[in-house]
Design goal:
8 strands; 171 residues; two-stranded antiparallel sheet; four-stranded antiparallel beta sheet
Length: 171
């Protein structure tokens, strides 16, 4: 009789452990799903940011008769070493306008090094596919991040003429 009572207690203990384990696994599954959803949302947000940035118009820049020029058109002009407002008194290299505009848009849109966000920096660059299959940088990479920071979001957008814009956020 004593042996049977001990066996019943062991079976009850095992059942309690199994119930606790199942509850733990349910909570773990919920937590993992939430983090995946947040990551997808962040990448969607970064993708939408890059789409909007490339459509940003630069009021005081005329390129190939287009006024005002959009950032993506300025990047294309930078690839060809063209200028904004050619022949005018306010003529400026397209690469300089691209760098200044991309930096301003990024720094005004993201809270870099803010205690309330995990973002510690960014990289905004454009590359052009060459005939050899490698890619060449267009203008200078606009970069502002600590060297040891991990990448937390990355988006690439083709803008035509073999040009791809890369945007990275670091944490």
């Amino acid at each position: 009789m004593v042996k049977k009572k001990a066996q019943e207690e062991i079976v009850g203990f095992v059942l309690v452990i199994l119930v606790v384990a199942v509850i733990f696994l349910v909570f773990l599954g919920i937590a993992v799903r939430k983090s995946d959803t947040r990551e997808k949302t962040e990448n969607t947000e970064v993708s939408q940011f890059l789409d909007a940035a490339l459509q940003f118009t630069i009021e005081d820049c005329i390129i190939r008769g287009i006024q005002p020029a959009k950032l993506k058109e300025v990047i294309r002009a930078c690839k060809d070493n063209n200028k904004c407002n050619p022949g005018e008194s306010n003529e400026k290299p397209a690469c300089e306008v691209y760098s200044e505009t991309a930096r301003a848009i990024t720094e005004n849109s993201w809270k870099i090094n803010d205690k309330d966000t995990p973002i510690s920096g960014y990289s905004f660059k454009a590359t052009s596919d060459s005939s050899t299959g490698s890619s060449q940088a267009i203008g200078n990479e606009i970069i502002n991040h600590p060297s040891s920071s991990p990448i937390i979001a990355e988006v690439q957008k083709p803008i035509g003429e073999g040009i791809t814009v890369h945007f990275l956020l670091f944490g």
